[in-house]
Amino acid sequence: MLLYRLLISLFATAVLLRRGPSRLTIPDPQDGPHVWLHGASNGELASVRPVLERLTAADPERRWLVTANTETARDMVAGWALPRVSARLAPVDLQRVTGKVIRDWGVTAHVSLEAEIWAHRFLDCPGPVILLGARMSEGTARGWGRVPGLSRRVLERVRFASAQDAGSMSRLVALGLPEMARGPVVDLKSFYAPPTVTPPAGFARNHTWLAASTHEGEEAIVLAAHAAAREAEPDLRLILAPRHPRRAREVRAMAEDLGLTVAQRSLGETDGTVYLADTMGEMALWYAAVGRVFVGGTLTDRGGHTPYEPAAFGASLIHGPDVRNFRAAYGRLAGAGAALEIAQPDDLVQALAALADPGEQARMGALARETLRPEAGIETICEKISGTLETG
């Protein structure tokens, strides 16, 4: 525990230098007891929205404090305007800071998403602790394994846990999760319900493809493939959504160096064979606009991003070999022949051509959506959560 406190103190110092004292408290505490739900960023919290909507509807008395590590995720949750839900930036997990939040907000239980395991939040919570969609990679498990006493103390506080995959659940149990806390293996992102959105005009779905959440090293591959694919499909447009919009200038320069015209979302531009979607929180617009999606993070050492969201919109899927963040989901897609995996960058042009036919796009998109339907129902998860909260 001393090592954890030292590391979290160093982390807190870095946060304070960057952002000031705002992460040392949660301001404007609301009256009444609260369940504290925490997720890292947009993806984690968007995945839990269907669960939270059902839980707030089922219990009109329960209040929720929802925290995120990023301002965009906090604002996203606030924009849902759910009753009795307060959205705030998460504080650093210093013992005195966490203790003050628990007292000020009357925290009675803690729900944490995916890989967000913070020792003081778990140990100091006066009520039940719940892990939803837990993700414990082999590397992270090795890290926790170096402090076995702490990992066991922290995980013994968990009353109910669902994990994204069987491997994560096994590693959590090995680190100290009680057997009685084991719940179903289900990825919360499989509950994603696509919102009704209207994409900007000018995108013909059958002739537009999306490179979603790309990382450094992938944009050059995507842009070269787009330029090559336009030789056979001259009307083809690309929506390029980098994972980090701050890289927009760099990405735009890459496209223009290839002779491609660029329209940049943040600048209000519309005409271009490449539409640079350099904004946050609008990915649903781009999924709805296209018939083909390349999932970013799969051609670099990033582990890949979610296939659930594009599949929910009925888009056909293309991805690279590095899918370890969603190994189970991509395994199901591969088993059903519901996505195209490319082994190397040059294969991307061939994959785009294989999905150029509108009928094939629709067939593969429908197959991906059906393949990724959740194995455990959302009602089951909500009942487990409610039961755990009620029994304390």
Task: Describe this structure as you would to a colleague.
There is one protein chain. The protein is α/β, with parallel strands linked by helices and 392 residues long. The chain folds into two domains: 2-187 and 375-391, 3-Layer(aba) Sandwich (Rossmann fold), CATH 3.40.50; 205-371, Rossmann fold (3-Layer(aba) Sandwich), CATH 3.40.50. It has 16 helices and 14 strands. The chain has helices spanning 2-19, 42-58, 71-80, 95-105, 119-124, 138-145, 148-155, 166-175, 219-229, 248-257, 283-289, 308-312, 327-336, 347-354, 358-371, 378-391, and strands at residues 34-39, 63-68, 85-89, 107-113, 129-134, 158-163, 182-185, 208-214, 237-242, 262-264, 274-276, 292-295, 316-319, 340-341. Helix 8 links the parallel strand 6 (158-163) and strand 7. The longest helix has 18 residues, at 2-19. The two termini are 26 Å apart. The model has no long low-confidence stretch (mean pLDDT 93).
What level of helicity do the residues show? 40-55%
Structural class by sheet pairing and helices = alpha/beta
CATH T-level fold name of the largest domain:
Rossmann fold
Mean pLDDT: 93
Note the gap between the termini. Answer: 26 Å
Task: Give the strand line-up of the largest sheet.
Answer: 3-2-1-4-5-6-7
Instruction: Please provide the count of β strands.
Output: 14
Tell me the fraction of residues in β-strands, as a range.
Answer: 15-25%
Low-confidence stretches: none
Bulk shape: globular
What's the order of the H and E elements? HEHEHEHEHEHHEHEEHEHEEHEHEHEHHH
Mind summarizing the main beta sheet?
7 strands, parallel
Question: What is the chains' assembly state?
Answer: single chain
Secondary structure tally, helices: 16
- Report the CATH architecture of the largest domain: 3-Layer(aba) Sandwich
- Name the CATH homologous superfamily of the largest domain: 3-Deoxy-D-manno-octulosonic-acid transferase, N-terminal domain
According to CATH, what is the class of the largest domain?
Alpha Beta
Number of domains: 2
Computed over alpha carbons, the radius of gyration is: 22 Å
